[in-house]
Design brief:
- The protein has 392 residues and is an alpha+beta fold.
- It is 31% helix and 23% strand.
- It is built from eleven helices and 13 strands.
- The strands form four sheets. The protein has a four-stranded mixed beta sheet with strand order 1-8-9-10. A four-stranded mixed beta sheet has the order 6-3-2-11, covered by helices on one side.
- The longest helix is centred in the first third of the chain and has 19 residues.
- It starts with 5 loop residues before the first strand and ends in a 5-residue tail after the last helix.
Amino acid sequence: MSSSNYLFTSESVSEGHPDKVCDQISDAIVDMFLAADPEDSRVACETLTTTNLIVLAGEVRGPSEVANDKDGMEQAARETVRRIGYEQEGFHWKNAEVQVHLHPQSTDIAQGVDAAGNKDIGAGDQGIMFGYACNETDALMPAPIHFSHAILRNMAEDRRAGKTPQLGPDSKSQVTLQYDAGKPVRATSVVVSTQHSPDSDQKGIREIVHKYVVDVLPTGWMCEDDEFYVNPTGRFVIGGPDGDAGLTGRKIIVDTYGGAAPHGGGAFSGKDPTKVDRSAAYASRYLAKNIVGAGLADRCCIQLSYAIGVPKPLSIYFDTYGTGRCDEHALVEYLTKNIDLSPRGIRSMLGLNRPIYGPTAAYGHFGQDPTDKGHFSWERLDLVSELKPLLG
């Protein structure tokens, strides 16, 4: 098999998956703090869920009316679970016990991050972050993860609208695509597991799911019937945190590029934008997407690295996988001179000091449409006109 002809698989999980429930609760807490104090709030919130139990833990800093409002945090957690749709005996938004164990941020960390005198805001931690874009889809995302997200997102929208009462909140998808000459051409297998009501049968659930898969995939891309798997175990009634414990940050490949590009290791949800795990990953996606959107490359991967307390990135790395149509040294020079990749610069450039993070915690942090309220600002293509002169 040549390197340009292969099969590649990516998976997604729904908003009702136990780990995604936790991500959404953690980001609800981030949004609470940023709504109260956009500049100085600091949040590192982890969530654990299991049978009728939700536990919040971590470090925060913000106005006392928010930082000390455990009832408000509990309500935010319950509202998140209610919106997702959990009203099961083993996990119910109203009946689950909620424990809040958030405490003040370490002063040792704060002194490295906060601006003081001539010192700018430093990175909230050391680490490496990657951004990626390719021209396989209109969203400039890898096709397998793009289609995997879309199947589950569409299923969830109809479930919440009451169109598919047979389906429950917890579901997973997996799409395998065949690549010829480096381009996706069709699906060779599709897997969807979805929670369902006790009185639903396997055939009925399969018929419901089939429609969503066919609607998402391009015409003629559907796999053979014997490679279309729906609830392979035969039954999926007990789902969500009642069926499996959840934790914040366990679905980082689902959150990014489905394995088509490297990941630095850090999770996003539950962290305010001083944490470069989150903000620098958004910035690197923003740059990579604009480079591909400008036609400078068909694929682009960018790595940024930081040290805790240090404002500037320690390194910037580009890889266009041999598809580049510009002088990459000139590109690096242009971006280094014109794009401020310090934590403060990223937050200002992308408008990250806002309560915009709730929607990021399901169906991917990348590939979704930016909104006029600031959500997914890193998906804008507003650098394309500035980058196009570097072509050729």
